[in-house]
Design goal:
By secondary structure, this protein is mainly α. Helix content is 73%, strand content 0%. It has 13 helices and no strands. Helix 6 runs antiparallel to helix 7, helix 11 runs antiparallel to helix 12 and helix 12 packs across helix 13.
Length: 318
């Protein structure tokens, strides 16, 4: 019975149907909530600061650029300096494949990345391992940073959670040493019965990838904080780390929800709950929804730039 259920979940038509049903439920709930709480939105003294709004978009676009650079490092982990032309080829692939994440489920961008990477000579196994590493590191770093906000969900003090997050940051940096990574790779390749591919990179490479992973969440947190400041000048700078942790946790939970396209509805719901202590209800709800639009803008901007700029070996991408 369980195997039959898994086989049905693998059906693309069923996944697409589940995604559309979920989108419909999200839209229905949003209209229902707004109608029920319309008086709170109507009585809110709305204020929109254009400079903070521009800042929110700028931080989001910077985050996507950092994420693309991180992928370039993962895709080209060998010794030596990564030249600009090769880095841009990898970053273009990242920008273009990211659009596939908006299809129902969170795995379509992986298939797109693999297909496009093959056109510049990367094997399926190499790109797949890079994707597993990229996705795993993003989720791990998101949950690690998300500890800063979990005192709202888990009965533990914020100091304890902050120390735990710092400990995980240090342990992860140590775990990215090439010897440890190659040890894990050895077991993986023996398990899948494939020839061993060793990581030929220095520990500096691993530290750089980890620092970029944490930097992504800081840029995301600054973008969300700027949105809140644009709507409510009273939002305090002291809440920046908590807001960053809230976004990291909400994004991670949304990503893990396989039936929600790009975590739609799940991310906004958790974000709304986690932002409640730092802003009024209408402001928190509006910022949670606006963060989705900002995320879409960063995807579209960099994908359009990647298409317009072209590339030496990927000019034929469709």
């Amino acid at each position: 019975m369980a195997s039959n259920l898994l086989d049905r979940l693998k059906n693309p038509a069923l996944r697409r149907a589940a995604g559309w049903v979920w989108i419909g439920l999200v839209i229905f709930f949003l209209f229902w909530y707004l109608r029920r709480h319309w008086s709170e939105f109507r009585d809110q003294a709305w204020h929109l600061d254009p400079w903070w709004t521009i800042g929110a978009v700028a931080w989001a676009w910077l985050r996507r650029l950092l994420a693309a650079w991180r992928w370039a490092l993962i895709a080209q982990p060998g010794p030596g300096r990564l030249d600009r032309a090769t880095a841009w080829e990898e970053m273009r692939i990242y920008f273009l494949s990211s659009l596939a994440a908006y299809l129902p489920g969170s795995v379509w961008y992986m298939a797109s990345r693999i297909q496009q990477s093959r056109r510049i000579g990367h094997g399926v196994v190499k790109t797949s391992l890079g994707l597993v590493f990229e996705t795993g590191l993003l989720l791990w770093s998101g949950l690690t940073v998300g500890l800063l906000a979990q005192d709202r969900l888990w009965p533990a003090g914020s100091t304890f959670l902050g120390l735990l997050a710092a400990l995980l940051v240090i342990l992860t940096a140590l775990a990215l040493h090439p010897r440890i990574v190659n040890y894990i790779l050895g077991h993986i390749f023996r398990l899948i019965r494939r020839p061993l591919i060793r990581l030929e990179a220095s520990w500096t490479w691993g530290l750089g990838v980890w620092i970029l992973s944490l930097g992504l969440w800081l840029a995301w947190g600054l973008s969300l904080f700027s949105l809140l400041k644009a709507l409510d000048p009273a939002v305090s700078w002291a809440s920046l780390l908590d807001i960053t942790g809230a976004y990291a946790l909400a994004w991670s939970l949304g990503f893990l929800t396989i039936w929600a396209p790009s975590g739609l509805g799940v991310r906004e719901g958790f974000l709304f709950v986690l932002l409640a202590p730092y802003a009024a209800v209408p402001v928190a709800m509006t910022a949670a929804l606006a963060s989705r639009l900002v995320t879409v803008s960063e995807d579209l901007f960099w994908a359009a730039l990647a298409l317009l700029s072209g590339g030496g070996r990927t000019a034929d991408l469709k």
